[in-house]
Amino acid sequence: MAWSKLKTRLVSAAILVVVLLIVTFAPEWVFTLAVSAACFVVLHEIMVTFKQETKLSIVIIDYIFAGLYMLSGFLRMDTGNQVIYMITIFFVMTLLIFSVVDHREINFNDVCASLFLVLYSVVFLIHLSFIRHMENGLALVFLAFIGAFLPDTSAYFAGNLFGEHKLIEAVSPNKTVEGAIGAVVGAVVSFTIYGVILWMLDFNVHFPRLLLLALICGVVAQFGDLSASVMKRAYKAKDFGKLIPGHGGLVDRIDSLIFVTPVVYYFITYFPVI
Question: Which domain of life is it from (predicted)?
Fold first, then answer.
């Protein structure tokens, strides 16, 4: 990669890190608003990629139910989860009803695409708010960030330094086996360091569970990235947008986080790490 492009990527990444830290340390309601805004951007980017933005009925339904999902992020985690189940049932019903009433405009493929993109864009990410609402939520939410971004960064550098064997060339030609191993190693190392920091801050850290979560995140984060590549290939898109210089759209930057967030939430719900 040319230095100018790498410089652009690094500057953009640095700005994103600063914004992320400011938002994360803000009050919970501010954090949830920021997560909701990110959900809207992701929803728009994928809607455009899926070529759904020209279908007015679908767009209105998607944004209405996306907004309802986002409101669940302001609730405590147990209540929020119950609300998500209820919203999903009525979302599916509404989509199917409109596929009958407006059958010339909306077909069943639109229903399936619409359901997927709202769940993927909003429901996965809104679990960040559920984590932030937990006891010690500020410390716990960094597990999602570390579990998504550190494996991605480690894979990038390991792949560039040692990459020789293609991972899944048909999906992402630049991914290598060495990069994938680097991602898992990076996750374990970063979680260990973070665990030590928490321990030094007098948190009661369960290191075996923390390391197990690191291994899971190291794998899941890569599938989040690869899944986004599958979507882009299916719709012949290079990137999901141009919002972030050097990275593409917001989805291109947080595709791993979209996958990792619900994994972290449910893991620490049933297997507390602090």
Answer: Bacteria
pLDDT digits (tens, 9 = 90+) for 167-177: 887 777 788 88
The per-residue pLDDT for 6 is 63
Looking at 115, 133, 151, which one is the last position of a domain? 133
pLDDT in tens, 199-239: 999 999 999 999 999 999 999 999 999 999 899 888 888 88
- Please indicate, yes or no, if residue 97 is contained in any of the structural domains: yes
Same domain, 58 and 119: yes
Q: What is the per-residue pLDDT across 8-38, written as a single tens digit (0 to 9) for each?
A: 777 877 888 899 999 999 999 999 999 999 9
Say yes or no: 144 and 243 in one domain: yes
Q: Has residue 266 been placed in a domain?
A: yes
What's the domain range around 51?
27-133
Task: Please give the full DSSP string across the chain, using - where no structure is assigned.
Answer: --HHHHHHHHHHHHHHHHHHHHHHTS-HHHHHHHHHHHHHHHHHHHHHHTT-TT-HHHHHHHHHHHHHHHHHTTS-HHHHHHHHHHHHHHHHHHHHHHHHHTTTT--HHHHHHHHHHHIIIIIHHHHHHHHHHSTTHHHHHHHHHHHHHHHHHHHHHHHHHH--SBS-TTT-TT-BHHHHHHHHHHHHHHHHHHHHHHHHTT----HHHHHHHHHHHHHHHHHHHHHHHHHHHHTT-S-S-SSBTTTBSHHHHHHHHHHHHHHHHHHHHHS---
pTM of the model: 0.90
